[in-house]
Write a structure and sequence with these properties.
Shape: flat
Radius of gyration: 20 Å
Order of helices and strands: HHHHHHHHHHH
Number of helices: 11
Length: 287
C-alpha cells in the first residue's frame, strides 16, 4: 500500500469516527432530553445517596463496553476498541448533560460542586446509552438497511446471553425514564393484587407481540416448525424476569424501596416492569 493510500485510509477512518461522534452527541441529546427536562431527576442529583449513584455509574461502564462492542461509533473488532467507544460515549453524555442543564438554568454558578456532580452524573447514565444508540438508529447506510431486510426473518447471532443482555439494556434505559417519578409509587399503592397479575400478563403479552407477532421492522420470525411456546419460554418469560430485576434495582438505587414492605416492593417492581418490558422488547428489534 502506497503512502497516499495509507493517508487516504487514515483520513477516511478519522472521518467515520468524527461522524460517529456527531451521531453519538445527537443520540445523547435525543434519547436523554426527556430526562434532562424532568424535575425529579434534577432533585435526585441533590439528595440521592452517593454510594448508590456511584454504583449505578460503575454498573453502567461494563454495560456500555458490551453495548459498544455491538453498536459502537464505528464497527469494533476488539474489546479495546469497544472500551474506547464506551469511554467516548460516557464523555459525550457528560458534556451534553452539562450543557443542556446549564442552558435550562438548572445548573447555576452559585450551586456547590457537589450538586453539579450529582446532577450531571445522574443524567449522564441514560444519556450515555443514548449516545451509543445514536449510531444504531442514525448510522445505517442503504446497504445496512438491505442487510437488515434480508435478515429480518433470522435470529440475530448474538447468542442467548447476548439476547438477554440487549433486553436488559432496553429495560434499564426505559426504566430510568420513569422510575424517579412519584407516579410509579402512587400507581403501585392504588393497584390491587388482581391489577398486579393483569399488569404482569400484559407486560408478557406486549413483549411477545412486539418481537414475534406484529410486523414491526426487525421483528423476529419463528421457523415454520417451531411452536409458539418455544419463544415464550426461551425469550419472553426470561426477558420479563430480567426487566423485573432491573426495575427493582433502579427503584432501590433511587431509594424508592427504603422502609417498604415486601408486598409493596413487588407491586412497585411490577408497575415499573410495564415500561421496562416494552424497552426490553424494543431493544430486541432495534439493536
Amino acid at each position: 500500500m502506497t503512502a497516499d493510500a495509507k493517508a487516504a485510509e487514515a483520513q477516511d477512518e478519522q472521518r467515520r469516527f468524527l461522524v460517529g461522534l456527531l451521531r453519538g452527541s445527537g443520540g445523547a441529546l435525543i434519547f436523554g432530553l426527556p430526562m434532562l427536562m424532568t424535575m425529579e431527576l434534577w432533585f435526585l442529583g441533590f439528595y440521592m445517596e452517593r454510594g448508590r449513584l456511584l454504583l449505578l455509574m460503575l454498573v453502567n461502564i461494563p454495560l456500555l463496553i458490551a453495548l459498544a462492542h455491538r453498536i459502537g461509533f464505528e464497527p469494533t473488532f476488539t474489546w479495546r476498541e469497544a472500551v474506547r467507544d464506551a469511554i467516548t460515549a460516557y464523555a459525550l453524555a457528560i458534556l451534553t448533560s452539562a450543557l443542556v442543564l446549564m442552558l435550562l438554568g438548572v445548573l447555576t454558578a452559585d450551586m456547590p460542586p457537589r450538586e453539579w456532580v450529582g446532577m450531571i452524573a445522574m443524567q449522564s447514565v441514560p444519556a450515555s446509552i443514548g449516545a451509543l444508540l445514536g449510531r444504531s438508529q442514525f448510522g445505517q447506510s442503504e446497504k445496512d438497511d438491505e442487510d437488515d431486510d434480508q435478515d429480518a426473518t433470522e435470529e440475530i447471532s448474538t447468542g442467548y446471553a447476548g439476547e438477554l443482555f440487549l433486553m436488559g439494556i432496553g429495560a434499564l434505559f426505559l426504566s430510568l425514564n420513569v422510575a424517579p417519578t412519584e407516579e410509579i409509587i402512587l400507581i403501585s399503592y392504588k393497584m390491587t393484587a388482581w391489577h398486579g397479575l393483569a399488569a404482569v400478563a400484559a407486560s408478557i403479552a406486549v413483549m411477545y407481540g412486539f418481537v414475534y407477532a406484529v410486523s414491526f421492522r426487525g421483528t423476529h420470525q419463528l421457523h415454520e416448525h417451531t411452536p409458539s411456546w418455544h419463544a415464550l419460554l426461551r425469550f419472553t418469560l426470561p426477558g420479563y424476569v430480567v426487566a423485573f430485576a432491573i426495575s427493582l434495582y433502579v427503584l432501590w438505587t433511587f431509594g424508592r424501596l427504603d422502609d417498604t414492605s415486601w408486598t409493596q416492593i413487588m407491586m412497585s417492581g411490577i408497575v415499573l416492569s410495564l415500561p421496562g418490558s416494552v424497552g426490553a422488547a424494543a431493544a430486541r428489534l432495534i439493536l
